[in-house]
Specification:
Family: Belongs to the ComF/GntX family.
Protein name: ComF family protein
Domain Double zinc ribbon: 10-42
Oligomer: single chain
Organism: Hymenobacter caeli
Low-confidence stretches: 4-14
Number of helices: 10
Structural class: alpha/beta
Strand order of the largest sheet: 1-6-5-2
InterPro entries: ComF/GntX_DNA_util-trans (IPR051910), DZR_2 (IPR044005), PRTase-like (IPR029057), PRTase_dom (IPR000836)
Shape: globular
Mean pLDDT: 87
Largest sheet: 4 strands, parallel
């Protein structure tokens, strides 16, 4: 009783806010409020056949991918942008894990877990990792691993620090990342169907470069999942 009263008091003085809408979270709500859970712009791309999936088409002729999924549709100044900003720059790593668990459970319910052997996040350069404190793609991978009941591993590394991809066009993004990824443990990758994950899919240049590195290490196939797509 005392613990419950104290939690209510602290909630009034220091309310926990939903990172998507900035409204106070109610008791029992974790990371996202119930309204945002219901109203976020979900893509449902995992329900489409690959040839009808607009994300899969982005990789045609560039990277052979079996599946390409994004959980949410990115909208500027919207809830998804606030979610991602809190995750990347606000230290809200629990948001990434929670989104991964939710999406992983949806993919599993759609029968897709059997299409993957290993989840691999896009890596950060150690300099950026030290500054941010965690890799947002890794925390998403952790959540996906729970939802899909699959292992995940930081099987790639970034060999060079590159300038931010923001405000670059597609050609510039590719030039920026084309040769900066390599496999950490090729035997762990060889022969496995990889689900490569990141926070946002824009042009796909970073994911293409990571996918190429995984295929060079002997991966049997590549699929892609991100929190959001632009």
């Amino acid at each position: 009783m005392l613990r419950s009263w104290l939690a209510d008091f602290l909630g009034l003085v220091f309310p926990r806010l939903c990172p998507a809408c900035r409204e106070p979270l109610a008791r029992g709500e974790a990371h996202l409020c119930t309204a945002c859970r219901a109203e976020l712009p979900y893509t449902d791309f995992h329900r489409l056949p690959p040839d009808a999936n607009p994300l899969s088409r982005r990789f045609w002729g560039k990277l052979p991918v079996r599946h390409a999924f994004s959980y949410l549709q990115f909208v500027r100044q919207g809830r998804v942008q606030r979610l991602l900003h809190g995750l990347k720059y606000g230290g809200q790593r629990g948001v990434g894990t929670a989104l991964g668990r939710l999406y992983g459970a949806e993919l599993a319910a759609a029968g897709l877990a059997a299409d993957f052997d290993l989840i691999v996040p896009v890596p950060l350069h150690p300099r950026k990792l030290a500054r941010r404190g965690f890799n947002q793609a890794e925390v998403f991978a952790e959540g996906l691993a729970v939802g899909l009941a699959l292992p995940w591993a930081p099987a790639l590394r970034r060999t060079a620090h590159t300038a931010t991809q923001t405000k670059k066009n597609r050609a510039q993004r590719w030039d920026n990342v084309a040769t900066v990824f390599e496999a950490v443990d090729a035997p762990a990758i060889a022969g496995r169907r990889i689900l490569l994950v990141d926070d946002v899919l824009t042009t796909g240049a970073t994911l293409e470069a990571c996918g190429a590195a995984l295929l060079a290490a002997g991966a049997r196939g590549i699929s892609i999942a991100t929190i959001a797509c632009a």
